[in-house]
Amino acid sequence: MTSDKPSTQPAEQHSTPGEVHHFNQQQLQKLASDIEIWALELGFGQASIIIPDLSLEHRLLKKWLDKGYHGQMHYLANHSELRRKPLDLVPHSCRIISVRMDYSPPAKNSIDILRDRDKAYIARYTLGRDYHKTVKKRLNKLAERIAQETAQLGYRAFVDSAPIMERAIAEQAGLGWSGKHTLLINRKAGSYFFLAELFIDIPLPTSEKKVMNNCGRCTACLDICPTQAFVGANILDARRCISYLTIESKEAIPVELRSKIGNRIFGCDDCQLICPWNKFAQHSPEDDFKPRHHLDDISLLELFDWDEATFLKNTEGSAIRRTGHRGWLRNIAVALGNSNGGTEVQQALEEKLLDCHPLVGEHIQWALTQLAGDHNKTRTEQLLVSSASDRKQALQLKRL
Ligand code: B12
Ligand code: SF4
Ligand code: SF4
Questions:
Q1: CA of 247, nearest ligand number
Q2: CB–CB of 242/236 below 8 Å?
Q3: For residue range 66-110, what is the model confidence (pLDDT) as tens digits?
């Protein structure tokens, strides 16, 4: 997932601090508590108010960038000062309301789909409508509700849409702790939630608190990562992450990682699926996050068959569009190379090869070679492989 249009645009509505905020401390305290309640009423899992101090995180981010772990996501290196001092993004803002919204949809069991090599696995966060729109709309509603009390309010809502270190802000706000997989985890809700922020110009009392890190000695997420993308606890080499490779990267997927990607065609959830805290993840009641076009249970071949017009039509209002039709075919070609194969798959790949972009063509060639190799495997070898992977899956499920 990405952010990042640079923005120092003024607040949506503007007031000069002190001009309208003549509330006394007690009234401000009451408003702060009300905001947390209104946020819940609007479908957020939690909200908390902070004055951010990201100096430590900012230093760590620099180290991370120096190592080149961001790959082609050059925007992460831009606007460094704004990342350190996010309030400078919105003139006159003095507080951030950090929120989280659960997204786990009522979808087909993830493990079942991951095990079926002919089906497509799409990360759970993006089976439905693009979350940016849903979450931002809701944050603007929260702002409108606040403005009803304060008469005037300067605000701006952000959802993964500016040079903001959202996880670091939410952690400081007390919405959870940073898991070893780098995502924020909440004791009561796991990690399947989005983060977002409402910048405001009212000097509300803050509600930040330190949440204990509950990872303990567990390393399940680090161990399970199919592409070994973690350099260590809390440090991800994004260039190896399937989410980066299938969504952000516009280039060829490194050959040595292709077979490890399995059937994951857009994003990946493995490090979260294995996390014991996700036993507490709540299903989202949001209609917007419900799977569209049966994307939670659909064959690779069906998706490979979408021409560009169908792709654009079916991904309207969905974050999947980000990968573009070319990226989509590239990803599915890799997954087909990892599938059970068969005549239909072979034919579909060969047919597409006749008329496709060279990037896609190269991945199709790879898939065909993989399948030809697989075909030559003896039946015994295949049985050995599948029973070994069954044992591994059983172990994984036990840990879940
Ligand atoms: C770039 C990005 C990505 C990149 C890089 C991911 C990453 N971990 O950085 C890629 C494309 C790989 C990605 C993938 C995913 N993303 Co993303 N992504 C972002 C984005 C836009 C920026 C994150 C960022 O700044 N990364 C830079 C690195 C440096 O940040 P960091 O990992 O937090 O780095 C810290 C540590 O490395 C630490 N550190 C460094 N050195 C050291 C040393 C020690 C000893 C320690 C302890 C720490 C430490 O300090 C760094 C600075 O804070 C945010 C939105 C935002 N604006 O914040 C969403 C965001 C983080 N993504 C999100 C999601 C949901 C995902 C996916 C689950 C999507 C999917 N299912 O495919 C995966 C998960 C992969 C994973 N394990 O992280 C959510 C996370 C929600 C949550 N619960 O935390 C966010 C917040 C978007 C949102 N608004 O909801 N993402
Ligand atoms: S999202 Fe997948 S590939 Fe990326 S770090 Fe997590 S398990 Fe590894
Ligand atoms: S799997 Fe274990 S180590 Fe990883 S985030 Fe969850 S609790 Fe922490």
A1: 1
A2: no
A3: 999 999 999 999 999 999 999 999 999 999 999 999 999 989 999
pTM: 0.92
Task: Tell me the torsion sign for CA atoms 269, 275, 277, 283.
Answer: positive
Token pair 């006159």: residue: 92
Q: 């080499």: which residue's tokens?
A: 237
CA distance 4 to 1: 10
Ligand 1: residues with CB < 6 A are 1-3, 57, 60-61, 63-64, 73, 76, 123, 125, 159-160, 164-168, 181-184, 191, 193-195, 234-236, 238, 241, 243-244, 248, 267-269, 271
Average pLDDT over residues 174-184: 98
- The pLDDT assigned to 376 comes to 53
Among residues 137, 247, 268, the alpha carbon closest in space to that of 196 is found at: 137
CB atoms within 10 A of CB 128: 24
Domains of the chain by residue range: 25-105+128-200, 220-399
